[in-house]
């Protein structure tokens, strides 16, 4: 059952994910084209582990649309790459979350990061019509995917240790 406190919690998580996504896309440049930290994925992964797959998917979809509206790239190339990466990432994280319980949050985060890159590379290959050139780039950015996946997973673990979501769920009987 959807309650007002649950809607409020999902809205807060979505808003935080949007802010992180917009700030990262507009102000944080790691110096290599196509590489981002994926800070918004902290909220997606946190939602997956604390509230469940359906809620994580909702936060992810709303985040992508709202962030792309704010950055002015709705339905542009950045949007297509973002949505493709999110779809591949979410499916991979969901599979590992549900069926491979021995994977840690960090492991699931790294898997999600790598599949996000894979989805983006597929869109880029279709757009550029260059299989080999884009595939070679995947090897380079794959290293960053592992690193950012570890960082995102670690941050989620640190947030979980605060029990902030758990306290909210207990307080409002979610």
Gist?
80% of the residues lie in helices and 0% in strands. The protein is mainly alpha-helical.
Q: What gap, in angstroms, lies between the N and C termini?
A: 9 Å
Order of helices and strands: HHHHHHH
Main beta sheet: strand number and arrangement?
A: none
Kindly give the count of domains.
Answer: 1
Low-confidence stretches: none
Description:
- This protein is mostly helical.
- It has one domain (4-171): Orthogonal Bundle (Arp2/3 complex 21 kDa subunit ARPC3).
- It is built from seven helices and no strands.
- The protein has helices spanning 4-27, 41-50, 53-71, 77-99, 105-128, 131-162, 164-171.
- α1 crosses α3 (53-71), α2 (41-50) runs antiparallel to α3 and α4 runs antiparallel to α5.
Compile the SSE list and pairings.
Blueprint: H1 4-27, H2 41-50, H3 53-71, H4 77-99, H5 105-128, H6 131-162, H7 164-171
Key terms:
mainly alpha, 174 residues, 80% helix, Arp2/3 complex 21 kDa subunit ARPC3, 7 helices
